[in-house]
Amino acid sequence: MSDSLIYAAGLRKSFGGKSGDAVEAVRGVDVEVRRGEAFGFLGPNGAGKSSTMRMIAAVSPPSGGVLRVLGMDPAVSGSAIRARLGVCPQEDTLDNELNVRDNLWIYGRYFGIPRPELKERVDELLEFVQLTEKARSKVEDLSGGMKRRLSIARSLVNRPDLLLLDEPTTGLDPQARHVVWERLFRLKQTGVTLVLTTHYMDEAEQLCDRLVVMDKGLIVAEGSPLDLIREHSTREVAELRFGVASDGDSHEALAAKVEDLAVRVEVLPDRLLLYSEDGEETLVKVHERGLQPAAVLVRRSSLEDVFLRLTGRTLVD
Amino acid sequence: MAVIEKAAAPDAASPEFIGRQLDYWLIVYRRTWKGTVISSFVAPVFYVLAMGVLLGEYVDADPDQLDGATSYLAFIVPGLVASHAMQTAVGEVTYPVMSMIKWQKVYDSMLATPLRVPDVVAANLLFVLFRLVTTCGVFMLALAPFGVFETWWGAVLAFGAQVLVGMAFAALVYGLTAGMKSEEGFGLIYRLGVFPLFLFSGAFFPVSNLGPVLAWVARATPLWHGVNLSRMLTLDNVDWSLAAVHVLVLLLLTAFGWWWSVRRLTARLVS
């Protein structure tokens, strides 16, 4: 446990509770994050990711279980833990009426960084997130991507041992997402321990060494992105689309005809997914059975397949 | 950089952590001070001119009926400043505090750092204290040439009383705001709280004019304690044991408001 920056065992969080209508957001989570790792919490909305992150950030007291962050108990040493954390919240909490530079400045002062040193750090960070030219702009005039970058810069002002990012690229356009990923990747290379939540699978695959999938307040899978794909999916997926009038057969009927050709067949409203080790080979066999899909696609299994398998395709609000 | 962790009671604020917020509040003040000039200094002077000087000409009451004031202006001035302290304080802890909690989420960003709820509340209330000291200070200085202060030390003590009643309101209303879901309640605070208090807590006429029952209602309000204390001091007509009661009541209200504010903000933001 000495080298783990986060250690949680049976961690729980419930809200409300006085009148017995408590909502259990986190229902017993075991997690260990080691120094230098990039660790991800994946899960649909309401899975308990953000509640877990808030407990780790020492701003939300756990309702049960054990939690140690940087070796300390957040219930006792919250302030000392937060002094060594960088937090990039899901919703920007920047002061819109202040300019970019002042936002970094005041935040650095909360950590007690002496003014001459802070001045240097603020300049460095503005450079790092490519906002030097915007230093005097008011935050409310920035684009969403710039605000995110400013939030990330702000979370680095105290040179944190552990950086917590709650959905760092949600709502950004592709260009802005790639800039953020690139900056996070550079931080990771310098040895910063990253913990992030996301529901973007490509983000998790790009950034995380190890991740957990959460659903309904519990961890349902854990491992590296590759391990998870290996464990919960096949190497490849063949996607078959049939025209509307395809012999009058329903997708279910079509699925029954190819069931034995794949490890698993999933029926979607617009297509069939055949999970197998070799997609092309599966496709050949499909054609041999006389089926003529209107369109086919063979691709590698992704984390998204794992995610949907584990947490279901039903919409969560 | 030393990491300070005080395992003290959660109600205690750390002077070092309060100090770390100085730059923030300076930046806020630099941005907003121009806007406060009119509400803080110009408007109250208008009140004094209209109510005290111009309307006061028609009021020719016996000094015995005006707590010993030799003119209506001298009677009304300490009450106006105390009321103004209340309005300034309430103004600072309603919309601006709601914004820090809910709209801009500035408190969330502060609480993600080593700062704790009591540090954040203390710094905010100290900023209100600064606003009260400057506003009431300038107001009192501007009134000095009107000859409404019997003694200089009475005026200085009255200034202290005005700041104190302002702080009592600041702490109490901060606590109210900390638990409010939306800004809709502020309309009620102003219409059913601030405005009636301003009119009926003895600033414009002795509360005994209200009749025996309502007079006691007025005497139960925090503002009356501030108004009466200020007036006794500026008119040099002090009942010291009553003055002590006024100070004690205002201190207790401030202390309760502080405790309540920290409790409610903690429940709101650290959950």
Rg calculated over all Cα atoms of chain A: 23 Å
Quick one: which chains have the greatest interface?
Answer: A-B, 35 and 29 residues
Q: Please report the total strand number of chain A as a whole number.
A: 13
Proportion of residues in helical segments of chain B: over 70%
What is the third-level CATH name, the topology of the largest domain in chain A? Rossmann fold
**End-to-end C-alpha gap of chain A:** 37 Å
Low-confidence stretches of chain B: 1-9
Based on secondary structure, the structural category of chain B is: mainly alpha
- What's the structural domain tally of chain B? 1
Which ranges of chain A are low-confidence, i.e. pLDDT below 50, for 5 or more consecutive residues? none
Strand content of chain A: 25-35%
The assigned structural class of chain A equals alpha/beta
Query: Could you tell me the strand content of chain B as a percent range?
Result: under 5%
Radius of gyration computed on alpha carbons of chain B: 19 Å
Strand order of the largest sheet of chain A: 5-6-7-3-8-9
Helix count of chain B? 11
Q: Give the CATH superfamily of the largest domain in chain A.
A: P-loop containing nucleotide triphosphate hydrolases
Oligomer: heterodimer
Query: Tally of extended strands of chain B?
Result: 0
Can you give a write-up of this model?
The complex is a heterodimer of chains A (317) and B (271). Chain A is of the alpha/beta class and 317 residues long. Chain A folds into two domains: 4-230, Rossmann fold (3-Layer(aba) Sandwich), CATH 3.40.50; 234-300, Alpha-Beta Plaits (2-Layer Sandwich), CATH 3.30.70. In chain A, 35% of the residues lie in helices and 26% in strands. Chain A has eleven helices and 13 strands. Chain A has helices spanning 49-56, 74-82, 100-110, 115-128, 144-155, 174-189, 201-207, 225-232, 251-258, 279-288, 303-311, and strands at 4-15, 23-34, 38-42, 64-69, 85-88, 162-166, 193-198, 210-215, 218-223, 236-241, 264-267, 272-276, 295-300. Chain A has a six-stranded mixed beta sheet with strand order 5-6-7-3-8-9, sandwiched between helices. A four-stranded antiparallel beta sheet of chain A has the order 11-12-10-13, covered by helices on one side. In chain A, strands 2-1-4 form a three-stranded antiparallel beta sheet, covered by helices on one side. In chain A, α8 (225-232) crosses α11. The two termini of chain A are 37 Å apart. The mean pLDDT of chain A is 90. With 271 residues, chain B is mainly alpha-helical. Chain B has one domain. Chain B is built from eleven helices and no strands. Chain B has helices at residues 15-19, 22-55, 72-93, 95-103, 106-111, 117-143, 152-179, 184-200, 212-219, 222-234, 240-269. In chain B, α2 runs antiparallel to α3. Residues 1-9 of chain B have low confidence and may be disordered. Chains A and B meet through α2 and α3 of A and α2 and α5 of B.
